[in-house]
Amino acid sequence: MASQSQRMQTTETEASQDDLKKQERRQKRHLRTAFANGMMQGILSMLKPGDVVLDCGANIGDVAEPLAQTGATVIAFEPDPYAFGRLKKRLASYDNVMLHNAAVAVDSGTIQLMRTETFEDDPESGSVKSTIIKGGRKIDERDEASIDVALLSLPQIIRDLVAEHGEIALLKMDIEGAELDLLEHFLAEGLFDPIRLTVAETHENKFRDLRPRFAAMRNAVTEAYPITKVNLDWI
Predict the structure, then answer these.
(1) Helices marked H in the chain — which ranges?
(2) Which pick of 40, 52, 210, 226 has the fewest CB atoms within 10 Å?
(3) Using only C-alpha atoms, what is the Rg of the chain?
(4) DSSP state letters, 30-94
(5) Is residue 21 over pLDDT 80?
(6) How far is CA 129 from the centre of its chain?
């Protein structure tokens, strides 16, 4: 049997390892924050009045508001009613912003929006995770817990805006898994080409069954476009 001193050493070693892991996680968070801040500042510096910007998954406006402050025309999409209410109130004073209480996808229609299992406990942080894609972690997929929301065709919106303006300055997507179908479609149809910069956060960590598709899509996009054109590591 292990002696008391051996057990104490084991406990101290485990505690030390836990502390090291916590420190590593903190460092990674700091690096991500620094990277995100730098990326955001770079994006803001390239925008000017007259530019067209699409913010898909605008949530409560933490990104949409700085984008609007550049003078660019911001078209923002947010399907969660709670987040959209906050977004609408926050951006009410900007006449260069157009808001849509809708999700985006390849085709238009209606769809069920699913929320986290603990949404009612903390709607603000919970609304960030609302999704139209089944299979996400800790998402309540029951029909009675879901909300019917409008679904707009992002490819058609892109085509219409390009026909009117010639190009789109920025497309930002943070849409909790729904980006996969869109990114695959954009790649197949060449829809990245008329967009000066596309940034997207991919959510393969939340949708285990979709990881092979996410990996294949990432590889294909990386081969086709430089990171200065299509960046899949948004904040």
Answers:
(1) 4-46, 64-69, 81-90, 123-127, 154-165, 179-189, 211-224
(2) 226
(3) 21
(4) HHHHHHHHHHHHHHHHH--TT-EEEEES-TTSTTHHHHHHTT-EEEEE---HHHHHHHHHHTTT-
(5) no
(6) 9
